[in-house]
Design brief:
The radius of gyration is 18 Å and the shape is elongated. It contains six helices and three strands. The chain has two domains: 62 residues, Winged helix-like DNA-binding domain superfamily/Winged helix DNA-binding domain (Arc Repressor Mutant, subunit A), CATH 1.10.10; 32 residues, no CATH class. The protein is mainly alpha-helical and 120 residues long. The longest helix is centred in the middle third of the chain and has 17 residues. It is 65% helix and 12% strand.
Length: 120
């Protein structure tokens, strides 16, 4: 299942708090993106068709909640990125960010801690 960048904003809103109505989702993500409620409803319908979210009737409206777990989506997306750009290897990804000076001292410290935990 591929989730677009725009759809991911709707998913993030639902991962933060659900169930939510289309109006609540639109109020959360719409203004920052310049999206109308109709645009958000289009994204919701796409996610319903992909079975990433589900809907339940609540009176005259629907409430939406994620079916797709955020951790599963992040794992798939990050694996796909590493496969596409770095031949499935993490080290070139880290090297790329270090050369582009995108790693903060906190990032470096955390990476060192992670490596120390992996090293027997």
């Amino acid at each position: 299942m591929r989730i677009s960048g725009a759809e991911s904003l709707v998913m993030e809103a639902l991962w933060r708090d659900s169930p939510r109505s289309a109006e609540q989702i639109a109020a959360d993500v719409g203004p920052a993106q310049g999206w109308s409620e109709a645009t958000v409803k289009t994204l919701i319908n796409r996610l319903l068709k992909k079975k990433a979210i589900e809907a339940e009737r609540d009176g005259r409206r629907y409430l939406y909640r994620p079916r797709l777990e955020r951790g599963d989506w992040v794992a798939r997306e990050s694996a796909g990125l590493i496969d596409r750009l770095f031949e499935g290897r993490v080290a070139p990804l880290v090297s790329h960010f270090s050369k582009a000076r995108k790693l903060s001292p906190e990032d470096v410290a955390e990476l060192k801690r992670i490596i120390a935990e992996l090293d027997p």
